[in-house]
Amino acid sequence: MRIRGALAAVAAGGLAIGLTPTAADATPGSGVTGTILSKTTLGRTDYVLREITIQPGGTTGWHFHDGTLYAFVKSGTLTHSKSDCTLDGVYRAGAAFTEPSGSDHVHVGRNLGTKPLVLDVLYVLPTGSPLSEDAANPGCPFQ
To answer: What's the rounded Cα separation, in Å, for the pair 17 and 40?
Structure first.
């Protein structure tokens, strides 16, 4: 509930609203779009609230983040795997999770379901950092 509250606080905190559809930043992802709902910078930290949709069969591609992410699953199911090819979570509607920062936390998110997956994600990043950094498939039999 804390994560959901943090998402709501950022959204309601008077941030500049820019409903800008963008392609997902990690490659070789597929079937993923994102809309930035709000963005602000406080000190040396960027706070970006984004809604991400992953179509059935879609994938974020392997990637990592320069800051911490807080995510809430609005609908669908996210299958989340680490760079050692192990499953580290299956998150269904109503679930919240965190993704830690750094290149030692490479991961991939996939929608293995039959309905679109919708996530609300709060990115807490060093100022000027990209939303994600691409990474090569570490040798897993899935993308």
So the answer is: 9
Nearest to 117 by CA among 68, 67, 63, 60: 60
In one-letter notation, the amino acid at residue 17 is I
Burial 51-61 (b: 16+ CB within 10 A, else e): bbbbbeebbbb
Of 107, 48, 36, 39, which is closest to residue 78 (Cα–Cα)?
A: 107
Percent helix, strand, coil in the chain, to 5, is 10, 50, 40
Q: What is the DSSP letter of 42?
A: E
pTM for the full predicted model: 0.82
Each residue's pLDDT tens digit, 38-74: 999 999 999 999 999 999 999 999 999 999 999 999 9
Higher pLDDT, 143 or 90: 90
